[in-house]
Amino acid sequence: MKKNILFFSGKRGGINHFIPLIKKIQKNKNFKCSILFTDMHLSKIFGQTYDEFVNLTKEVHFVKSISKKIDGSKSNRANQIPKAMNGITKKLIKIKPYAVIILGDRSELFSVAIPCMILNIPIIHFYGGDVSEGSTDNTTRFSLSMISNIHLVSNKYSFEKLLSLGIERKKIFNVGLLSLHQIPLIRPSKQNFFKKMKLDPKKKTIISIIHPETHFLDKLKNQMKNVLISLKKIDANKVFIYPCSDPGYDIIIKSIRDYCNKDKFSHLFKNLNNKFFYNLYSNSNLIIGNSSSGILESGYLKIPALNIGNRQKGRYQTQNIINCEFNSKKLTKKINYCLNNKKFIFKVKRAKSFYYDKYSLKKSYEVLTKIDMKNKDIIINRF
Hints:
The protein has 2 domains: 3-176 and 357-370, Glycogen Phosphorylase B (Rossmann fold, 3-Layer(aba) Sandwich), CATH 3.40.50; 190-350, Glycogen Phosphorylase B (Rossmann fold). It has 14 helices and 13 strands. The protein has 383 residues and is an alpha/beta fold.
């Protein structure tokens, strides 16, 4: 019987990392892959993104947790976790996975990690050890690390961080960032792409992805006001992408919708599929906001990134990133710098991604297929 590796995902950015890995594992005659979708994947509010990934495997499962009503309160988010946990526990008992794969720091991961811990189902956690001090993600990520059995990290500092938490060295593997293997090698021409996106090819393009700073929700309205005031002063295409489902998402969505209704060169997307997302990225001049994508992937694509506020504070940054607080005057100045300073743009083009490892896929595959998850003493050579 084939060993069933279950990939758990609550958002597009999560499962996106695993696409090449899932495809590679399924070529191994001893393994099969299944996917369990929940949270943002199944919500119309966030674009119902599971459709993009259901054909990756023959076996897919769904557990809904987000209601149809837009509600960005903390109490609503807290109630979603046990709601999902009940359904996920039933799925785990039925599926009996060989191991469960989780990624990152999203709170919905507790809804699968806790049942797995109780049911003695091994958990393989990608990208523990990272630091992002401006949200509850930080606490979530470290909590998940303590629950998980095997750890695949994105860089040497995260490796060292997990060691400092008391996790055994033989259970931690530095594999780099898998998502970078998903960036398309062939891209359409800028002209055709901009036409599809309804953007002006003569203008520079700014991507904005902003998530709530969950420790400072009382400041969120004012933070959004400062960002949008600064962008209003910039003559460029502006592409906004929906925030994650953290408390406060409704405030961000409303602020951006109101702004886009008054600016014909601004566009708001609930979700962009992989091809469009990375084509947008590669044809853009700047990404601003506080998304981890601005830290992790922009360096590989050699695009300037303006990281705002504290949500990503603590993550290791490459040379293409500039930091700024939520202050409209300072933001306007730094946006113009990122778009127009030739020395900085040249520096960005020469920057090397701290998270890229050309053997990332091979390393991840070997960890997942060579470790005996039924053996308490994990025996595998370090890379």
